[in-house]
Write a structure and sequence with these properties.
alpha+beta; 5-stranded mixed sheet; 4-stranded antiparallel sheet; binds adenosine monophosphate
Length: 279
């Protein structure tokens, strides 16, 4: 399995293996190869940019990289799992003083990007004829340097755009870290095991275990509020007429759910992180 050796995706990729219980035996800064502690997986540490190529060529069976890099390299690999980190989007942007308001306003102009293939494909699909200037890094300073009129670059919070006096025109591509595998080894047992193990951690991170108490006569009001896919568990308490409700709820819903549960009669509300979840 190939893992990013540096850059933005390195730490969260290693943290995912750690949380999955399959972290490397010698997680040193400079090692290029390692074996996993509790699983028979050999790890190869390479740049995130190179992971799609290593997987496509069969040097490794699978790897973690950005979906934007898979698309930009036009790699022939299977995207097995979305990993929920490294989220960003490829956006077209111009200087805040520029008159352009949409991508089509960039016709006939120069656009700097580190993702020339995605950029060219999107422009061609939209029938926009613009000149693409491929640059490897620091795309956001190109308009100020006079190298280009606009950029197509990765954005996560938007603060880099703002700092450089740029204004977004449009999102071209949504990306996040993904687990990719060699085409044609779908039924491989090792791949299935890895997908289940990493997937269980990704699912767990997106959910919280919620517990609360409620009087039996208000139980229906409380359970009606739960954004739970499965059925909640209801357990009798020693105190007559009161039950405990246990449910798995999306982490993103917690903030809006708690006051509504309280208003519906729930008390002693507790939420706990979940370590693993296999649906
Ligand atoms: P690296 O160049 O090794 O730091 O990794 C870059 C990868 O991290 C990109 O290809 C994206 O998949 C991901 N990423 C997430 N957020 C951003 C961002 N704001 N800028 C650049 N890359 C990002």
């Amino acid at each position: 399995m190939a893992l990013p050796s540096k850059g933005r995706l390195r730490e969260p990729s290693w943290a995912l293996l750690e949380a999955s219980g399959v972290s490397p035996q010698e997680p040193g800064e400079r090692v290029l190869q390692a074996h996993c502690r509790n699983a028979d997986i050999d790890l190869l540490f390479v740049r995130a940019d190179d992971v799609p190529e290593y997987v496509q060529d069969g040097v490794v069976d699978c790897g973690i990289t950005g979906l934007d890099l898979v698309s930009e390299r036009e790699s022939n690999v299977d995207v097995i799992l979305r990993l929920g980190f490294g989220t960003c989007s490829l956006q077209a942007a111009v200087s805040s003083e520029d008159a352009a308001t949409s991508l089509s306003d960039l016709a006939g102009r120069r656009i700097a990007t580190s993702h020339p293939r995605i950029a060219a494909k999107t422009l061609a699909e939209r029938g926009i004829d613009a000149e693409i200037v491929a640059v490897a890094g620091s795309v956001e300073i190109s308009p100020r340097l006079g190298l280009a009129d606009a950029i197509i670059d990765l954005v996560s919070t938007g603060s880099t755009l703002r700092t450089n006096g740029l204004r977004s025109l449009e999102v071209l591509f949504e990306s996040e870290a993904v687990l990719i595998g060699r085409v044609g080894s779908k039924d491989d047992e090792a791949r299935r095991t890895l997908t289940t193990v990493l997937g269980s951690v990704i699912n767990a991170r997106a959910n919280r275990y919620l517990l609360c108490n409620v009087a039996k006569d208000r139980l229906a009001d409380v359970t009606a509020l739960l954004p739970t896919a499965g059925s909640p568990t209801v357990i009798d308490l020693v105190t007559p007429g009161v039950v405990a409700v246990h449910a798995l709820v999306p982490a993103a819903d917690i903030w809006s759910l708690l006051p509504r549960l309280e208003a519906a009669g729930a008390s002693s509300i507790i939420t706990l992180p979940v370590e693993r979840m296999v649906p």
